[in-house]
């Protein structure tokens, strides 16, 4: 239709590099009409100047490198056509902060995007290194780009470190889980070597991907906390770190 074409033209003005948006199928799944509209709104507000290469295509969201008028930013777009929103609903419904959210698929996804933004803010306030959120608009989260010159920091799983550094990274990660729980009142809920980036210069961890993070009041928060700790303890075994996840859990719970 005319309308779709017009919005599409506007997004072209964002200098979307189409060759970077993977396959045509992905492009259509991500950049549906409401998403293009939202991108257009963000462009009009001067929040996104240009959108560039795809950083990641995940189960529910795509992450793109973009620019505002002076720096790189990361744009995470939750697909409205996402097929996994049923599990999203479970997380949203147990969270007292989202008591008034309507239960349509779109509204759940918009609430999810807002939730990720709020979780990142709380995490940052508690002293964790996380991408600073800039704007959450409908299904789009704009945040600080964690990387150098357009290259994202590596995920923990792809970053090899010395044993001593590994112990420091491990301790920082456990401290972050502790701060998140005891200061921010949150449990990450999907913590693993995939959702931690490493800043190569300092070898410091950065927590990402907090859409599913829940408050301590969530009925499954303890289960998620234990799972997060277990994932980290398991991953660091290859560096000779043998810490008992249950001991770590007890320490965090008894603060
Ligand atoms: P998903 O739900 O798809 O796993 P993530 O938030 O984990 O979404 O992002 C997917 C990938 O995109 C990450 O593993 C990371 O490599 C990259 N990424 C996400 N956010 C940022 C960011 N703010 N800066 C740089 N890279 C990012
Ligand atoms: Mn992830």
Automatic annotation (TrEMBL):
It comes from the Archaea. It catalyses: L-seryl-[protein] + ATP = O-phospho-L-seryl-[protein] + ADP + H(+); L-threonyl-[protein] + ATP = O-phospho-L-threonyl-[protein] + ADP + H(+). SMART domains: RIO. GO terms for molecular function: ATP binding; metal ion binding; protein serine/threonine kinase activity. Residues 49-255 form the Protein kinase domain. Its EC number is 2.7.11.1. It is an enzyme of class 2 (transferase). Keywords: ATP-binding, Kinase, Magnesium, Metal-binding, Nucleotide-binding, Serine/threonine-protein kinase, Transferase. Belongs to the protein kinase superfamily. RIO-type Ser/Thr kinase family. This is non-specific serine/threonine protein kinase. It comes from Methanolobus tindarius DSM 2278.
